[in-house]
Amino acid sequence: MVGPGAYAALGRGETVPALRATTGRSPLETLTRLFVLQADVAGADLRRALGAVDTLVARGVLQPVTVTTSGEDRVGAAVDIRPYGVDDTDFLVASDLGTGIGGTRGPVRRDHVLGIGGASTTLAQLTVRQPVDRALDLGTGCGVQALHLAQHSVVVVATDTNPRALAMAALTAGLNDIRLDLRRGSLFEPVDGERFGLVVSNPPFVVSPYPRFEYRDAGMEADDLCRVLVEQASGHLADGGTCQLLANWLHVRGQDWRERVAGWLQLTGCDALVLQREVLDPMQYVETWLRDGGDEPGTPPYARAYDAWLDWFEGRGVEAVGMGWISLRAAGSARPRTQLEDLRHPVVQPVGPDIGAWFDRVDRLRRVDDRELLGAAVRLARGVRVETGSAPGPGGHGLEPAEPQVRQTTGLCRSGAIDPVGVAVLAGVDGERPLGQVLEEVARGYGMAPEDLLPAASGAVRTLLEEGFLLLPEPGHGGSWTTDR
């Protein structure tokens, strides 16, 4: 409606072109100016578009702005209501007026309810989408994750500590004719004794010395909020249930971050995949969240808060803060698999199918012994590439063959070095011949005895299968293959 140029300007935070494009006073233009562009509109125009203006004012959705000298009343939005597209479905999401397009700027209230942002869309894209009877959105905020869950769950429970957030989630649900079971409380307290097929959470994970905003600060010591969520999640998962959350964790002097987060997972009994997506040093981290809270760089309050936050980090030996995704599955295994990866390169969204497939492969491989593995006709997954090339030689003189790399072009886009024997194995698997036969042929080609290659190759092949470079055929289905993702 506003045109490509004005739409691009909105992405830069500029509203003037879109306001110029919406002066025709059609109902759609009126609502766009009011809720999307955060501009006040004539009450007469809004009554033609909505009708029940006075009722919406009484309920806090709209607010009277002024009455002009000509007697025309003007009305503004008290909340942000904007469209949100999911696949081929359009939703409306309610939140507090934001710090973005035409909305409030500067500090926001403590119980501010965020709208859709980068974190919420990231969680939606990494969530494993499969039908479940009961789903939980822990820390629902404006209710956007609950909208997603309602598309493949019979019952959706949504919780929050903030009454204002629950009110916004209720408005979001009502605007989309979706039923939510909304409950107030912290962590898993509102669902004590209940289990779910899927739990998602975009929690208040910011690691800070003092809580300022409910949407981001839990008021717990350091990264304890994420630790407690992980430790308690397994007690609320149904058999085969999945929990996925965004998290921050500390990089503490003298301790690998993997060791720290692995400690959270130790007693869950769940398969776990932890992907670190970003690492910020203390200065970058403090600057990010001070600006998020509306603090203005260069002012004395900003400098004092910055200094105090760095003191707090230094007192705890914090060298950096990791940000990433934690996914758990209650697989019911006595040997749960824990994988922690530093995965900071770009991925192909949505990665939910890829994460779900990783859990499926881990569970399958647990039940496949080496004899069965060698008898399986494995093949390359879709989108796998082996790259070879050249690199500068010692001292930058000339070119030498570079170490081959195996790379995925879909999903999590994992990559890694692979030796020539591994390249030969990948070239040999065709989905027809048993893996053992392929390994024997590769061994002979390199002048090796098959019995010398098979034990080492078995572990390497299992890693390639788990990470999705190779695929096993479905059990009992001959040439039918497991999904590429």
Fold blueprint:
Layout: H1 4-11, H2 16-20, H3 27-36, E1 41-42, H4 43-49, H5 53-58, E2 62-67, E3 73-77, E4 80-86, E5 89-95, H6 118-126, E6 132-138, H7 144-149, E7 153-160, H8 163-175, E8 181-184, E9 196-201, H9 224-233, E10 237-252, H10 257-265, E11 271-280, H11 282-292, H12 300-315, E12 318-329, E13 338-342, H13 352-366, H14 370-375, E14 379-380, E15 384-387, E16 390-392, E17 399-401, E18 405-408, E19 415-417, H15 420-428, H16 435-445, H17 450-466, E20 470-471
Parallel strand pairs: 6-7, 6-9, 7-8, 9-10, 11-13
Antiparallel strand pairs: 1-3, 2-3, 4-5, 10-12, 11-12, 14-20, 15-18, 16-17, 18-19
Helix pairs in contact: 3-4, 11-12, 15-16, 16-17
Question: Nutshell version of this structure?
Answer:
This protein folds into three domains: 4-78, Arc Repressor Mutant, subunit A (Orthogonal Bundle), CATH 1.10.10; 84-363, 3-Layer(aba) Sandwich (Rossmann fold), CATH 3.40.50; 368-393 and 401-471. It has 17 helices and 20 strands.
Would you mind describing this structure in some detail?
It contains 17 helices and 20 strands. By secondary structure, it is an alpha/beta fold. It has 3 domains: about 5-80, Orthogonal Bundle (Arc Repressor Mutant, subunit A), CATH 1.10.10; about 85-365, 3-Layer(aba) Sandwich (Rossmann fold); about 370-395 and about 400-470. The strands form 6 sheets. The chain has an 8-stranded mixed beta sheet with strand order 8-7-6-9-10-12-11-13, sandwiched between helices. A 3-stranded antiparallel beta sheet has the order 1-3-2. A hairpin with a 6-residue loop joins strand 16 (about 390) and strand 17 (about 400). Helix 15 crosses helix 16 and helix 16 (about 435-445) packs across helix 17. The radius of gyration is 27 Å and the shape is elongated. The model has no long low-confidence stretch (mean pLDDT about 90).
